[in-house]
From TrEMBL:
<feature type="compositionally biased region" description="Polar residues">
    <location>
        <begin position="160"/>
        <end position="171"/>
    </location>
</feature>
<feature type="region of interest" description="Disordered">
    <location>
        <begin position="188"/>
        <end position="262"/>
    </location>
</feature>
<feature type="compositionally biased region" description="Basic and acidic residues">
    <location>
        <begin position="31"/>
        <end position="82"/>
    </location>
</feature>
<feature type="compositionally biased region" description="Basic and acidic residues">
    <location>
        <begin position="98"/>
        <end position="133"/>
    </location>
</feature>
<protein>
    <submittedName>
        <fullName>Uncharacterized protein</fullName>
    </submittedName>
</protein>
<feature type="compositionally biased region" description="Basic and acidic residues">
    <location>
        <begin position="238"/>
        <end position="262"/>
    </location>
</feature>
<feature type="compositionally biased region" description="Polar residues">
    <location>
        <begin position="135"/>
        <end position="145"/>
    </location>
</feature>
<feature type="region of interest" description="Disordered">
    <location>
        <begin position="30"/>
        <end position="171"/>
    </location>
</feature>
<feature type="compositionally biased region" description="Low complexity">
    <location>
        <begin position="189"/>
        <end position="214"/>
    </location>
</feature>
Amino acid sequence: MAPGRHDTCPCGFVWLKDMQGDGYTCAGGNHRIDGSGETPGETKWRMSQEAKKQAEAAQKEAERAFEQGRAEAREREKERVRIRAAPPATNSPSQPVHETDADWERRESRERELRDLRERQLRQAKAIHEPPRATRQQSRSTPTAAQVEADLAKARQQKQKGTIQINQKDSQQRFQQAIDAQAAEERAAAWARINATKRASPSTPTPSTNRPRALPAPESAPIIEPMPWTSVPSAKPTQEREPELVRPRQSTPKEREKIPWE
């Protein structure tokens, strides 16, 4: 059984010890652990955690060293202030001690060295905790002729570059204005053609679909025949009798046949 593991791997196979090395591989070939029972992912995570802890410890150590250096610098400064404020140790208080030029120069040089050392320590301590910043070294001395010439050449180059940019912008504006004017002319010409087409009479005869249809031939006047009851009788008597007044002839009725039982 693999150390720190159950009898089987997550996929259900048993762990088999590698022929070479101290690792274990499951029978399915899907998982592998090292001799301590950790998967590659667990090993990577453990190493990352250890590296993170080491980085945090190093940062804390640097901060502790920085604070300790500042405390020591404060103590040294207090000691120097106390020594300066203390009265000079003389055998006879009535006789003041006169400082020679050599002593004054030695004291000034020693104080200057101490100041330089303190500033250098402060800069080093600040560089540990602050990200490096790109500082531009500016010389406070009188510029040389070469520097003046370089500055003038740079100024001329910048001025020339600005002039070129202005000229390019003006040329672009003029080109755009020319394009806009040409487009406006083309648009006006197109509208003129459209309006002329609308106002002009058709160049072709009117199509048959638009011609007015011919009116039908007028109908002949109806023949009105007077009805007998609407006609006025003539004053002259006529021998003709009206059809409706003619009586049928009297016919001899046929003798009816008798029925057998009559």
